[in-house]
Known about the structure:
This protein is α+β, with helices and mostly antiparallel strands. It is built from 13 helices and 31 strands. The strands form 10 sheets. Strands 25, 26, 27, 28, 29 and 30 form a 6-stranded antiparallel sheet that branches. The longest helix has 10 residues, at 60-69. The relative contact order is 0.08.
Amino acid sequence: xxxxxxxxxxxxxxxxxxxxxxxxxxxxxxxxxxxxxxxxxxxxxxxxxxxxxxxxxxxxxxxxxxxxxxxxxxxxxxxxxxxxxxxxxxxxxxxxxxxxxxxxxxxxxxxxxxxxxxxxxxxxxxxxxxxxxxxxxxxxxxxxxxxxxxxxxxxxxxxxxxxxxxxxxxxxxxxxxxxxxxxxxxxxxxxxxxxxxxxxxxxxxxxxxxxxxxxxxxxxxxxxxxxxxxxxxxxxxxxxxxxxxxxxxxxxxxxxxxxxxxxxxxxxxxxxxxxxxxxxxxxxxxxxxxxxxxxxxxxxxxxxxxxxxxxxxxxxxxxxxxxxxxxxxxxxxxxxxxxxxxxxxxxxxxxxxxxxxxxxxxxxxxxxxxxxxxxxxxxxxxxxxxxxxxxxxxxxxxxxxxxxxxxxxxxxxxxxxxxxxxxxxxxxxxxxxxxxxxxxxxxxxxxxxxxxxxxxxxxxxxxxxxxxxxxxxxxxxxxxxxxxxxxxxxxxxxxxxxxxxxxxxxxxxxxxxxxxxxxxxxxxxxxxxxxxxxxxx
Length: 537
């Protein structure tokens, strides 16, 4: 049934119907909607639904208007205040956004589409929109779309809003998006999450996508039930315009008053080293902040002997080459030396660019010693060399062990077949699933210590845990709040696996139990974490 428009109200740019600013959006639904998806106040399908402690759900606008009159649950009359209401689950909101609705511009458009796509349709694609909007008043205040969104080459740059699904369009000007992603419906995260946004990539230049954003839709394809591999394939598929449905958590910002006392000083540091000697610094890309930072200085190294470098110093250039906006692996290559002697290149090791990971084979020269055997592939795990274990070694130590075989007429390599392998000439780059599939003995935990004020949040949300349907699942970090203790520490990322908190194991515990264990911690919290770099796109 088509609903009549109310006289005296402005037409809304989100739903195309006329309604007051304090009222929920109005839609013309194609079919009858299940009453379980219906608000008991307006008797229409939920719009931006809120859950209340007694288990009932209402449209946010309907409930807020009701609570101004009486602070009781409209159904069971239990006491209720607005501050204890919370946004409904993302699953419910996805179901609502998939409901079929008709375009309100019925005189010039007969389009039927999903409710979540209507806003983009009205603002960008509706053939009757130019006529319809010229006869209407400005948008209602309930719509959060900017009144004058910028346009470039026919594409409107809508923002990503917190607490709801936003649809954005990005001109596909490059193959490399400059992001890493984690998760998928086939993982404990259940959803696809942006882990990092690299400074030189397409997404960074666009400026709207952030670490922690969930990708709900890619080029019109629903990602809510997509595997990690399917999400990667959808993002790699070239098209003139990349269209994304993005969900961003609604999180209150942490106070950043202490940053006002932070003063940057720029110094030039000259380090001298002998041939094949490492500088002795571990670099890190701070995923919540642009730049390359010193994570650790190895005792006795040239960097330590200089006395001029400290952990968390930011590296601006190396030998005159600007690295202020480059990626971590690019900066690392400038301070490292070549390391092949068997006709192969290795990656990984404790403290490597990807994290604390085992040594894996990144590339093989077809005519080298290893390549001629045709028994080892890129992506295989290198366990030992001539009986010497590589487990738990840094990248530098593993390289030294391999170079020590240069005068040997025969070399014995202990290899474990990798979860993923690769052919071709390019370096093998492991995906996030590659690390997830490694046996537990090849996962190297790290200790992360967080400090927080009494009663304050640690600044991250978790997923996973013992599930009656899916069975036991590891606890993973889903989202890290900007400026929180977790973000400022710099070592926690989306997709990291939590093994223990304050010495108490999180293996085979329920999700609610894990949440309670984290809440009961004190001002100093010790976490045991396994961290991997996400899949690069």
